[in-house]
Amino acid sequence: AQKITQTQPGMFVQEKEAVTLDCTYDTSDPSYGLFWYKQPSSGEMIFLIYQGSYDQQNATEGRYSLNFQKARKSANLVISASQLGDSAMYFCAMRGSSFGNEKLTFGTGTRLTIIP
Amino acid sequence: GAGVSQSPSNKVTEKGKDVELRCDPISGHTALYWYRQRLGQGLEFLIYFQGNSAPDKSGLPSDRFSAERTGESVSTLTIQRTQQEDSAVYLCASSFYQIGKETQYFGPGTRLLVL
After folding, report:
1. Residue of B71 and A95 predicted with greater confidence
2. CA-CA distances (angstroms) from residue B70 to A35, B25, B32?
3. Which residue among A32, A102, A111, B33 is least crowded, i.e. fewest CB within 10 A of its CB?
4. CB B26 within 8 Å of CB B3
5. How big is the A-B interface in CB pairs under 8 Å?
6. Is the pLDDT of residue B35 over 60?
7. Using the 8-state DSSP alphabet, how is residue B56 labeled?
8. Do A104 and B33 count as a contact with CB atoms less than 8 A apart?
9. Residue A13's pLDDT is what?
10. 3-state DSSP call for residue B110?
11. Bridge-partner residues for A113, per DSSP?
12. Is B30 part of the contact surface with chain A (CB cutoff 8 Å)?
């Protein structure tokens, strides 16, 4: 079974500061994928970034980077230079081995509020 | 190109009625997923389709829930004899079935309210 834990129900961050959203995971699969999604108040789920368990480097996408520490089973999302539009719910999710376990297991989310 | 679309965007129904939710995946995506999101919670997996393989129904909460998919296109999720606890947002996602391209892209969801 897979499990995602997000321990920060809510965070408040000053605009232009960097923010780290925590995610730890548990799985017995030898290979897996980790995802972060953003969900604004409109409700849509927006894909942000992906990290494969065998990727040698941490994933980066613009202002988003993923601090992947495999031994600690953590996959924290770092948002640099936060903007007001970053205010949203953020979900960490995991997918098991490529074939046969494709569904995503989600954490409970972190509500991020950017303060002007 | 067009993203995942879902209809209706909102549905209000009375307890005991059946509802049908529709999902149109991104063209070329062979994998399709249904999730449920209760208010203030994360997403729960319901069912997964991949090509002509038997669907993974392991997340369906009861036999009142069923889903079908026509080839590699439209899917419908049916909830029979709806209950108030079925009130939630139902999200559909699709993806390629190819290593390195498995990212799931979500539709806007159907907000279901059972009175």
Report:
1. A95
2. 28, 11, 11
3. A111
4. yes
5. 57
6. yes
7. B
8. yes
9. 96
10. strand
11. A12
12. no
